[in-house]
Amino acid sequence: MVLSWIYSEREQTWVPGPYVIKDYRIQDEFRKCGIDPAHIELGDKIGEYSPDEISSYVVMDIKTLKETNKSISAAMYSIQSVCKYSHITFVVLKLREKKFAVISIPSRPTGRLSAELLETFSLSFSQALYIRSMIAELYKSSKIYRDILENIDKAVFLVDTNMTILSTSPVFYKLFDVSGEAVGKNLFEVVPFLKDIGREVIYSEVVKNRSSVETEEIRIIDENRKVITRTKIIPVIEENEKVTRILTIVEDITDFRLLEEQLKHTAEELARKNRQLAKLAITDELTQLRNYRYFTENLPKVINKHYSEGKPVALLAMDLDNFKRYNDNYGHQAGDKLLAEIAEIVRGFLRTGDFAARYGGDEFVLVLSDCDVDEAVDTAERLCARIANTPLPDNFGQRTEHITASIGVAVMKDEFIDAEELLRRADTALYVSKDRGKGRVTLYEVEIDEQKD
Predict the structure, then answer these.
(1) CA distances (Å), 213 to each of 36, 146, 302, 314, in order?
(2) pLDDT tens digits, 80-126
(3) Domains, the chain, ranges and CATH?
């Protein structure tokens, strides 16, 4: 707040003049401190006037003020040149060791300051205060910016549109292996790698489109070391909507990417082992066919699916004839090899959508999808013949032995048959094959149950 004061000849003292010019910034400073701008108490005498002559205000002429407060001497020169007066005295209002405003009066207490002079002075001083406050804010902001640059763990640098480096963070030098001062130099001369990867084009696009861009780069240092970085390029847009500077933030994500690769590899390995475990849970270890658990859990699903689609499904129950004799003659190890070889033969008769399982011991089951009676019987007979005609090793490693298989066939056609009943029918037909001399195929028919009864 800039106040005009006049010297009253009648009262022989200084009194507030009729002209008051307000500056909201100064008023706000006072009010923030809880002080009414119209009632300000000031301190000691400075200069040639005593406080009694001008109430309690402190008075200085231009020369004294310049010497006393060098921080605003430039503003005083400006005010003096604008006002065109060489003899101007200033009253400096002080509050908690801070100067907030100045009151101007004639250096000789006669007459009054003109309104024009006060107006000119007020504008000049207000501008000076504003400039000082802006400089202070800019300094504060720049200090914050410098503090951020000094402590951030990323390479941060600012360039103009000519790619001249304006400022950098310490990490910039370390990340790009830059030695010597980089500020003031061309970015691509300081860091040739950025030019090699076509960063010139990207910077041009950022300026043209006035939009940020994110990239990721791999820099090969040597055969044993590479650096992976993530970069964000941000245009600095001024009030005229033009890009004058470009801020770049580069983060070293090498460790992150290596960890990511390790986690990916670990996840893939874990998934592979989980698949192995899942397979083991449904696979017979000896024959590598599906196990009993898988068969009992999935047969009902297959039946329900085929019935809902109106398709037939066949179940073949197979038992090796005289397997006990072979196992006793040649040992359990030979018996296990025989079972594995039979399983391999069985696999050769499966189509897409079919599956076979080891039901137990030397018993096997085959589930044939979308398979009618004729096709099921034909498959069973070909399988039976193939096993019978396959020579098996004896004690001397010669393939002179043979074994046969008995097979029972049950088919669900139009009517629904649950898993338990379908398996019972296939088993019933299997035992008929055994009773009729083994090494043969029997199709389940209702008459078989009637004959048993």
Answers:
(1) 52, 24, 54, 62
(2) 444 444 444 444 443 333 333 444 444 443 333 444 444 444 444 45
(3) 2-147 (no CATH), 152-257 (3.30.450.20), 283-452 (3.30.70.270)
